[in-house]
Amino acid sequence: MVLTLTEILKILLLVLLVVCAVSVNLTKSLLQAVIIFLSYSSVMCILWVLMESPDLAITEAAVGAGISGTLFLLTLRRLRAVDDIEEGGEDGK
Amino acid sequence: MNKSRFLSWLYGETDVMEDILELDETSDESREQLKREKRRLRRELLRSGRAKKVIGAETKGFYALYHVVAVVSCIMLIGVLLFAVANLPRYGEENPETTEMVARYVEKGVEETGADNIVAGMILDYRAFDTLGESHVLFTALICVTILLRLDRKNMRKTYEDYYAIRGERFHDISREAIMRNVAAVLVPCIFVFGIYVLLNGQNGPGGGFSGGAVMGAAMIIFSAAFGFDKADRVFSKRLGAWVTFAALSFYSAAKGYVFFTGANHLENHIPKGTPGAILSGGLILPLDIAVGMVVAFTMYGFYNLFMRGK
């Protein structure tokens, strides 16, 4: 079986997707979890393009990687989970 | 009540009950004292052994009930879902309801809807009532967030300083940073134009109401983050958002609401479909796309705005 370049890329991205999904659950810091979740959305966006549905890719990029990330971060600030970002010492308290 | 006062109440500018309802005038200090007193009494009560036993028994009973209710409602939900799944046709089985419809959509979609993008033809023509429900779900979500988070005009934060002053925190004003401002000045117009392109081109290429509206909402969020609330309020005020959302939703309901009574059968369409591929094609699809896009854009911006400066 000979894999084309696109198929190899697809498999790599799918593996990355699983890694992202698992590591969101394993991260202790809420801020890191949000950032990993955003990268999950970005990977999913590329996968939508490879699966030939560009309209879903546009929506995923705007909603998944953009707006929901903003809302998550604002919620974290409201929960005072990211208060110490500026000092570089975010310990997810 | 005179009319202007009623109107100003309608727009949420004044509170009619302001002088009628009694306000709690106790100062912060005495309230603190009361709280401390309450805590002390509670501690004393807990220290006596008998009270501890009584309270423990009460809470234990309550938590047992809590667990029982949680388990029962979970089992009922699982039962309903499994029942629904059991009634679905088996995967890959011949099923006229699905296979015939798909064949019809793919073969006759372009001819019947006048849209090159078959997905837009499906979601805004054949299944337009699904999208009608979706836009109303978004609107309802925005209303719920508004009810939970909105502050009246007196307490509304105009700037980031206000926000942090109220919460007593240090503040870091991102809209003062040169990088943010200059990048946004270049990026925001480009993102807006791309969003409008995606919105208007929904019937011919990838895109449509939801994606275009989401891109435009993101552009509005970046504008607000980079230039501050006071400038953003001048362009996208809350009243403008409310009116645009209301107009878009009522246009959509007027155009497609009747399908709930005809059983999803469409009335005869008298709007010319145009040539597939042109911008003005697809009959009602383009106006419906614009309506959905407006609702999505203002909902996204409204979420950001309320999360940022609300309660």
Please name the defining characteristics of this protein.
heterodimer; A: 93 residues; mainly alpha; 3 helices; 73% helix; disordered C terminus; B: 311 residues; 13 helices; 0% strand
Q: Which residues of chain A sit in consecutive blocks of at least 5 with pLDDT less than 50?
A: 84-93
* Low-pLDDT ranges of chain B: none
Listing every helix as H and every strand as E from the N terminus to the C terminus, the arrangement of chain A reads: HHH
Rg for CA atoms of chain A: 16 Å
- Strand % of chain A is under 5%
Report on the biggest sheet of chain B: none
Please bin the fraction of helical residues of chain B: over 70%
Number of helices of chain B: 13
> Biggest interface between protein chains, with counts per chain?
A-B, 17 and 21 residues
Distance between the termini of chain A: 50 Å
Helicity range of the residues of chain A?
over 70%
Structural class of chain A: mainly alpha
Summed over residues and divided by their number, the pLDDT of chain A gives a mean of 82
Largest sheet of chain A: none
Q: N-to-C terminal Cα separation of chain B, in Å? A: 30 Å
Please write the string of helix (H) and strand (E) elements of chain B.
HHHHHHHHHHHHH
Number of helices in the DSSP assignment of chain A: 3
